[in-house]
Amino acid sequence: IWNHSVAFAIPYNQKNHTNRIVFHIYDEDILSEDDSMGIVSIPVAFQDSGGDASAAVWHEIPKNSAKNACGKIQIQVQTSLHRVEGLTPYC
Hints:
The chain has about 90 residues and is an all-beta fold. The protein has no helices and 4 strands. The chain starts with 19 loop residues before the first strand and ends in a 16-residue tail after the last strand.
């Protein structure tokens, strides 16, 4: 899927410098099962406010992450922290 967007939440008490987004990349086959084209894992950098998108970055697909597949994938990630007024953080 190209130009795909998805939103998800990470609970505030689980936000840390080790959070990562993992992309499992597959081709699309009509007559057989889709084949794995690789796995890319990138760190998540949180911003306190604004939610400005980072620049799109090309990530190398590790050669050992899929059989007979290699290349790059361009990924752009937007993160932001949303604080709810009146709530005490549970971290």
